[in-house]
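From the pipeline queue, job 12 of 40. The input is one protein chain; the requested action is below.

Action: predict structure.
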Amino acid sequence: MSIFDMVIISRQRVLFFLIDTSSSMSGTKIEAVNTTIQEVVPYLREVDAVDVDVDVDLKIAVMRFSTEAEWITASGPVAIGQFSWKNITTGGETNLGAACKELNVKLSKGSSFIQAAGGSCAPLIFLFLGGSPTDDIDSSINELWKNNWFRQSKKVAVDIGKNANKDVLEHFTGNSDSVVDFCSAEMIQVICEDALKVGAIRSDQADVIEKSRRMALKEKLDKIRKDTTEGGW
């Protein structure tokens, strides 16, 4: 599923942020991520407050990974109204494989991070990566793709600094459309706006409408990429 595919809303909506905090993310890279999440939180609160058409709770789950994978939201996803961001620092290896294994656990049956199918919509997962993984990544991602919640999720991989391993990012998301090479709050906002829409009833014009929507999203992202690149990280 690419970032242009629509997700059908159910009762709980969890946004996962998986953040590379290894040494390769030092300096302006981690600053970009910290700034992006700090700036996007107010927007997400507003979305949650005005989303009155359906009974959906917006929640955030955050993992940082370097030599080890650690959940910042260790007790489970946090309601956006209660979520606050504290800047994180860097150091250690880039063990994305360990992060994928940990994500697989939290997306599995019995985890406090995800409800049963009747109580959740497909998650939205953002992966921020600033280099190449230093552990066994292929087998970990292959196992992750066997997870039903992961397969149904909307996945976006952010190449921080434009020197992350593109093959790994495409393996994680499933396609190149879902890999972006810039980091900004506006980028997350645009993707969330698209992903969190209620699915429309199918009609004879559904394919045309879907194609138009995906083209509009791509145009928005291209404009944000241009503005972000011109303005620097």
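Job complete. Strands lie at 12-20, 57-65, 69-71, 78-79, 124-129, 154-159, 179-180.
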